Amino acid sequence: MAIPDLNLLITLDALLAEGSVAGAARRLRLSPSAMSRALARLRETTGDPLLVRAGRGLVPTPRALELRARVGQLVQDAEAALRPADVLKLKQLVRTFTLRSREGFVENFGADLIARVAAEAPGVRLCFLQKDNKESASLRDGSVDLETGVVGKATGPEVRCRALFRDRFIGVVREGHALSRGGITPALYAAGRHINVSRQGLAGGPIDDVLRTLGLERQIAGIVAGFSSALALARASDLIATVPERHSGNLRAGLHSFALPFTVEEFTVSMLWHPRMDADPAHSWLRGLVLQSCAAAQNK
Known about the structure:
Helices cover 39% and strands 23% of the residues. A hairpin with a 2-residue loop joins β1 and β2 (57-60). The model has no long low-confidence stretch (mean pLDDT 90). The longest helix has 21 residues, at 62-82. It is globular, with a radius of gyration of 24 Å. It has helices at 7-18, 21-28, 32-46, 62-82, 105-120, 137-140, 186-191, 206-213, 227-235, 281-298, and strands at 51-54, 57-60, 95-101, 124-130, 146-149, 160-167, 169-174, 193-197, 219-224, 240-244, 255-259, 267-273. The chain has 300 residues and is of the alpha/beta class.
């Protein structure tokens, strides 16, 4: 029996992850025509069309869906097996790590983290991506090396996590706002006009749940996707922004911050990674630096 071309596994992994010939070609730095020829070979080898046209896009066949997780794991295992097991030499390390985080993490911890990386491994580059959902797909497919965020129901059961810090919601208004003079009660807070932060465009959240138990309801004048947008609106108006304290530290410069006049449960921000990276010495080193940066910021 002829030995199959195992390079096709890498091609198949890219095609199934991207769901398009063009996307897979970009991922593997090939031309679209070369990727199309590779897909033709895969179809011949597997005896299945794998990706079929649906409108303007491609959708996976049942066989492709069955293969997706298996092929992805095979490629990851192969990469781990072929990775040098030498002692980590940070001064010689040349690598790009991709980190996905919610808005505010880079603004408050990014500069310190980049400085720590540069001091120990000048050949290492950090690529920060905006976190627009809590799904773990990017950790599974290897497009993201490390994430920060709150562990939730959407977090993959296999994902490893390590707590970084505790955070809490606080209120923020412009200097000179009526609430900047103190004496804030739940009723005064609720009576103001608010800007809500929601990646899904929702008009409510945990703050509103607590207010309802007090028989109060706040007026949501606008909804934005990120903390910086909420704070920009609070800076330029009488709107009240309610944001996580540590995630918004540097973003709140020049604004008045106050503790909420009612109890809202604190939450833990963690770093998350796929278990295949556990034994990677460079990844372990980076995780240690992230911990150091967050601890240093807390002690300021």
